[in-house]
Design brief:
alpha/beta, about 450 residues, Oxidized Rhodanese, domain 1, binds fe (ii) ion, Metallo-beta-lactamase, Chain A, 3 domains, elongated
């Protein structure tokens, strides 16, 4: 089983504090920072999918989680702050402009959060969003989506301001030393840290010294907004929970608003090739444990879809056991979605699994009856198939369909339709929080 979020993360000591970075396949970074003597800790930007992993690590280390901080209002992933903080009676922290439900500590610029005999300084860092803060400790900068490794954040949604971002970056560069370690809120190439000195030398955005030029280049190439941004903002700001299931009619609405990229179709590849929601991802139920990474890269809320709903429920149970959140079962599956007016695309030249079952079952019954006149024992074959079809009708579980789905001719289209959320690995994905490199044209 390949579950990247449960991989053991190493501890690094920076300025007397223990720092544990956690990577999410979407490119998000969450952090635990602890003061070893008092064993007090803080969680920074906890992703909803990482809540269980973070909580287990806090308990395993014997830390008390004093604070849970969101550096800003996240628009590209669900925050896990509301799920993590109550487990440890932690104080939730965000900038006063954030107005997140459940936040009780709203530090102003320069305010300190005590962590044993150490302090975390909260600095207002507007630009990516108006409510953005960065966190400064002895030797480390947790920059959220202000400064990335080799890049900066985009400023074209949620009230972002490119000029403010320029001012924020100049302020940080002029007041922090070059050897301070940078821990960003995102990295799309698997990197964990840099230093301010390295960024001054190699980050193309920091090479731009003129404010107007910076603003012009950063705003020249707006990228698509993050997938499901509206729903994610309701989750992150209003504390709304992602529902365990939704009526198929709701999925029709999501898909019509460009939400098809969050539909995970758990039917067999053959069924998907026959008919599917355009733009959805195919991850068959029996492959789900081996394709966790792909599911994690799909933007939440993630809609689990099958033919009638039964396999989607099983997929949700399996993924929940792996600690993956943000999962919603589509009630009634593709049949209900289609009946509610949802758009599908049908593949050419593929015989549906249901039709294959009808042909196979009918053929076996015919053979059983014909051979029954040769020897009565063959009537049992026809009776067995009839009983199987009755069982399948009552339980909605068809053994013959499962066997046929594994036949070679039904495997041909495996993954061909999959449009997993992970896009270009060498650059920030479309709809992420990162800006394109300066001077590039939009290739997304
Ligand atoms: Fe962001």
């Amino acid at each position: 089983m390949n579950n990247p979020i449960t991989a053991q993360q190493p501890v690094e000591t920076v300025g007397g504090l223990l720092v544990v970075p956690f990577k999410h396949p979407q490119g998000c970074r969450s952090y635990l920072v602890a003061e070893p003597t008092s064993r007090k800790a803080v969680a920074i930007d906890p992703h909803l999918d990482l809540v269980n992993v973070l909580a287990e690590r806090v308990r395993a280390e014997g830390w008390s989680l004093s604070y849970v901080i969101d550096t800003h209002t996240h628009a590209d992933h669900p925050s896990g702050a509301g799920a993590l903080a109550p487990q440890f009676s932690s104080t939730r922290v965000a900038h006063p402009k954030s107005n997140h439900v459940g936040v009780t500590r709203k530090p102003e610029d320069g305010e300190a959060l005590d962590l044993g005999d150490k302090q975390i300084i909260v600095r207002h860092a507007p630009g990516h969003t108006p409510d953005h803060v960065v966190l400064v400790t002895d030797g480390a900068l947790f920059s959220g989506d202000t400064l990335h490794i080799g890049g900066v954040a985009r400023t074209d949604f949620l009230g972002g301001d490119a000029g403010q971002l320029f001012d924020t970056l100049q302020n940080l560069l002029s007041t922090l030393s070059d050897d301070i370690i940078l821990f960003p809120g995102h990295d799309y190439e698997g990197r964990v840290q840099s230093t301010l000195g390295l960024e001054k030398d190699g980050n193309p955005w920091l090479a731009i010294r003129d404010r107007s030029e910076f603003v012009e280049k950063l705003t020249a190439n707006p990228r698509p907004q993050p997938a499901n941004m509206k729903q994610l903002l309701r989750l992150n700001c209003e504390g709304m929970n992602i529902p365990e299931r939704i009526p198929a009619a709701d999925l029709v609405a999501y898909v019509s608003q460009d939400g098809a990229g969050s539909v995970i179709d758990v039917r067999t590849p053959m069924e998907v090739a026959t008919e599917q929601v355009p733009g959805s991802h195919s991850v068959p139920l029996d492959e789900i444990n081996n394709r966790v990474d792909e599911i994690l890269r799909t933007a939440a809320p993630r809609f689990l879809l099958c033919r009638s709903g039964a396999r989607a429920n099983k997929a949700r149970d399996a993924l929940t056991k792996l600690g993956i959140g943000g999962l919603t079962v589509v009630e009634g599956g593709l049949e209900a979605y289609r009946a509610s007016g949802g758009v599908t695309v049908k593949g050419a030249g593929h015989m549906s699994l249901e039709r294959q079952v009808r042909i196979a079952a009918g053929t076996l019954v015919l053979i059983g009856v014909a051979l029954g006149f040769v020897h009565p024992a063959f009537f049992a074959l026809a009776a067995f198939v009839g009983a199987g079809l009755t069982f399948a009708g009552i339980t909605d579980r068809c053994g013959m369909a499962l066997i046929l789905a594994k036949m070679p001719w039904n495997k041909a289209s495996d993954r061909a339709d999959s449009k997993a959320g992970g896009t270009c690995a060498a650059s920030a994905p479309s709809g992420s929080c990162a800006a394109s490199p300066p001077g590039t044209t939009d290739k997304d």
